């Protein structure tokens, strides 16, 4: 990567056509920079453009106007094949729908980028096994995704996102289907991925104030626009129970006060 910020969005707009042919503005001129070493949480009500923003930042989509620079590359200037190559090299993604490959084992799904790239199993198995064990999934390595619960699939998706230590990790509600203990473990893993890689960054879309409070910065999205941001202490303690974490309570109050 270059010496610039890993992710930079400038006047980002994304429009769609709804079923009736009307134009829907999902994003309306978003400016956002995610610095090297930063963990950022994106919050806002459903329909505010959070997932659309994440897809654009991850080169899964291209903007209607404006630009996204990912690892120094202008995403809109790349072909679909070039964007796919950029994602494989630089981006780890956690989707709300997990997007695990049903024909592959859990272990193969974790190391998907190397499996698809043809790397010999002896080269990727140890790291993939280590990640599964960190997430208490080691015994499920040879199962297929349909044999797992939703929470287990979510943890596999997180392991896949951080496998290979990509410099940009983007996660859409990564703790949404998890209990408090597993949620804390997943968030520890995501935050550690940023800390261990020089120049890396993390962007998390979440509705959970306790998750947001663990990140260094929170931005509020409303109607496709960034309306405010909050700097947090990014505490590395376990996520506390509802109402028991002053950091989470601060985020909740801040978010409730946004117009």
Question: What order do the helices and strands come in, and which of them pair?
Answer:
Layout: E1 7-17, E2 23-34, E3 39-43, H1 50-57, E4 65-70, E5 73-74, H2 80-90, E6 91-94, H3 106-110, H4 112-116, H5 121-134, H6 150-162, E7 168-172, H7 180-196, E8 201-205, H8 209-214, E9 217-222, E10 225-231, H9 246-256
Parallel strand pairs: 3-8, 3-9, 6-7, 7-8
Antiparallel strand pairs: 1-2, 1-4, 4-5, 9-10
Helix pairs in contact: 6-7
Description:
There is one protein chain. With 259 residues, the protein is α/β, with parallel strands linked by helices. The protein has one domain: Rossmann fold (3-Layer(aba) Sandwich). It is built from nine helices and ten strands. The protein has helices spanning 50-57, 80-90, 106-110, 112-116, 121-134, 150-162, 180-196, 209-214, 246-256, and strands at residues 7-17, 23-34, 39-43, 65-70, 73-74, 91-94, 168-172, 201-205, 217-222, 225-231. The strands form two sheets. Strands 6-7-8-3-9-10 form a six-stranded mixed β-sheet, sandwiched between helices. A hairpin with a 2-residue loop joins strand 4 (65-70) and strand 5. Helix 6 (150-162) runs parallel beside helix 7 (180-196). The longest helix has 17 residues, at 180-196. The radius of gyration is 18 Å and the shape is globular.
Could you write a compact summary of the structure shown?
This protein is α/β, with parallel strands linked by helices. The protein is built from 9 helices and 10 strands.
């Amino acid at each position: 990567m270059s010496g610039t910020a890993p992710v930079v969005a400038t006047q980002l707009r994304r429009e769609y056509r709804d079923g009736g042919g009307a134009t829907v503005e999902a994003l309306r001129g978003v400016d956002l920079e995610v610095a090297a070493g930063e963990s950022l949480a994106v919050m806002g009500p459903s329909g505010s453009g959070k997932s659309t923003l994440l897809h654009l930042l991850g080169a899964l989509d291209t903007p209607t106007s404006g630009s996204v620079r990912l690892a120094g590359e202008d995403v809109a200037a790349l072909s679909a094949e070039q964007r796919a190559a950029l994602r494989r090299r630089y981006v780890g993604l956690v989707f709300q729908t997990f997007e695990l490959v049903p024909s592959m084992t859990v272990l193969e799904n974790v190391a998907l980028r190397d499996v698809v790239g043809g790397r010999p199993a002896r080269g990727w198995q140890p790291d993939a096994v280590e990640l599964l064990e960190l997430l208490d999934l080691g015994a499920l390595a040879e199962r297929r995704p349909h044999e797992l619960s939703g929470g287990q699939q979510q943890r596999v998706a997180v392991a896949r996102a951080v496998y290979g230590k990509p410099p940009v990790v983007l996660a859409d509600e990564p703790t949404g289907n998890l209990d408090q203990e597993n949620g804390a473990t997943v968030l520890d893993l995501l935050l550690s991925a940023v800390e261990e890689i020089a120049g890396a960054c993390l962007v998390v879309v979440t509705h959970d104030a306790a998750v947001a409070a663990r990140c260094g910065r929170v931005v509020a999205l409303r109607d496709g626009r960034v309306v405010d941001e909050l700097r947090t202490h990014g505490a590395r303690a376990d996520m506390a129970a509802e109402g028991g974490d002053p950091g989470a309570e601060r985020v909740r109050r801040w978010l409730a006060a946004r117009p």
